[in-house]
Every structure is written in C-alpha cells, then in structure tokens.
C-alpha cells in the first residue's frame, strides 16, 4: 500500500464506529474540487514520486498501531485518493480484518471486480461510493472515460451486495444541477442511502482556479433544490 496519511481517531468517518482512517495515494480521477490534491498527485504504484513524507506512517507502522489498539478502536476507514488502485488492498484489508476490525471503504467505483472480491470474502462492512455527476458529464472527471462502465457496474454491485453503504455526491457546478440530479437519481434508483455534501470553497483544491469561480458553489436553497430533484428516486436522500 502506498500511504499518504493516517488519522488515529475519527468519530465521523465511519457511521456508528470509532475508527482510524488510512489515506492511500494516487487517483484515476481529476475532480477539480478535490480536497486531497497531494494524495491525487502522488502515484499509487512503485514508480511514485518519492515518500509521502517522513511523518507519514507506512503500512507496517499502521498494522502495529492497530494491533495495539484492538478493543479500543473499532474500525478502519480506507480512503484516498482511490484505494482500489493499490495492488495489495485486499491483502491489507484481510490482515486488518483478522485483527477484528470493521472496515469501511471509500471508492469512486472504478474497480467493481475488487469490490466483488471484498463482498464475496466478507471483508467490508460499509462502502461509501462517490457519484460525481450523471453519465454524460462523468468524462469531465475521469482520466480514462472508458472506465465509466465500471462505475455503473459498481453501483449495481453495491446495492446488491454491500452489507451497508451510501452513495454520496460533493455538490458543485457544473457537475450537479437539478436536471443532472434527476439523471443521477435514475442511475442509483432504489439505493438505501444517498448523501449530498456542498463543496467547501476555502480549502486546497486540485484545480486552484476552480475555487475562484463563485458560480461553482451552492447555496442552502440550491442544495435543497438538488435534494428535491433526486428524492423521487432515492427516498433516503439527505444533505450532510
Ligand atoms: S475527489 Fe476523490 S475521486 Fe476525485 S480526484 Fe479527489 S480523490 Fe480522486
């Protein structure tokens, strides 16, 4: 695993669970509003651009930490970047699982085969999948738009097999409008849970110019309009 960060304690990242959070490096998307630009800029493989910094623990450090916190911390969130780009993700999760931890995985949905293995082996308790926009606009955030079929496949797989899950959208124009939200609703129709998050403006972003355009950011009323557009398709839609 190529690790870009580790948070020892979180009460908000894994619903109902006191968890640590591990951030993996590298992403196959280029969302301009991405709040983790350093992770996205790093590569997910051995040809990376050097270490994430001497303060960042490596995989062994994290496993040792988790081993000592058994019974105190309940779960581990694996996020990124895009965690499914890590070649040894399944082995890492298996090792943490064997220590008795619950696992939450955050993903952009481009690796349905990996999700399927995790579900079949009972290795995840909760999946949070980002829905970036509707099908027509997805290529705007993808390095490889040919992977769009995988995103669609992951949506059905998660609805069918994930023990618990949420779909979630960071809301910013032009990626979401009420019309786009209606299309998203059709994409994830019948999902158990959908969360809309307004995009924060005053943070580091992958594309710093994105933050300079006021129209990209949504008001409370805008967020309510998005929610209203998707509610006919996903009853449990909420704004976080
Ligand atoms: S927001 Fe998520 S999917 Fe998009 S570039 Fe950042 S880490 Fe990748």
TrEMBL record:
Keyword vocabulary terms for this entry: 4Fe-4S, Iron, Iron-sulfur, Metal-binding, S-adenosyl-L-methionine
Gene3D superfamilies recorded: Aldolase class I (3.20.20.70)
Gene Ontology molecular functions: 4 iron, 4 sulfur cluster binding; catalytic activity; metal ion binding
Pfam families xref list: Radical_SAM (PF04055)
Domain Radical SAM core intervals: 13-240
Keyword Iron-sulfur attached: yes
Alphabetized CDD domains for the sequence: Radical_SAM
Protein name, entry field: Anaerobic ribonucleoside-triphosphate reductase activating protein
Organism (species): Desulfobacter latus
């Amino acid at each position: 695993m190529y690790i870009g960060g580790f948070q020892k304690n979180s009460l908000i990242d894994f619903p109902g669970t006191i968890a640590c959070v591990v951030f993996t490096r590298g992403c196959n998307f280029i969302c301009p509003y991405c709040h983790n630009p350093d992770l996205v800029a790093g590569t997910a493989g051995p040809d990376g651009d050097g270490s994430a910094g001497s303060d960042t623990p490596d995989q062994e450090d994290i496993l040792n930490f988790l081993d000592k916190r058994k019974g105190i911390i309940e779960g581990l969130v694996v996020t990124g970047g895009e965690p499914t780009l890590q070649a040894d993700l399944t082995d890492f999760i298996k090792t943490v699982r064997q220590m008795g931890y619950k696992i939450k995985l955050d993903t952009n949905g481009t690796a349905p085969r990996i999700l399927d293995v995790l579900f079949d082996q009972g290795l995840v308790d909760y999946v949070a999948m980002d829905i970036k926009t509707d099908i027509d606009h997805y290529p705007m955030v993808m390095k490889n738009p040919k992977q769009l079929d995988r995103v669609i496949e992951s949506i059905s797989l998660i609805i069918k097999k994930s023990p618990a899950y949420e779909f979630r959208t960071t809301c910013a124009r032009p990626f979401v409008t009420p019309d786009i939200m209606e299309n998203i609703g059709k994409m994830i129709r019948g999902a158990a849970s959908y969360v809309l998050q307004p995009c924060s403006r005053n943070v580091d972003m992958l594309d710093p110019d994105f933050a300079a355009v006021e129209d990209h950011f949504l008001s409370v009323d805008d967020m309510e309009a998005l929610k209203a557009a998707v509610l006919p398709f996903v009853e449990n839609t909420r704004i976080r």
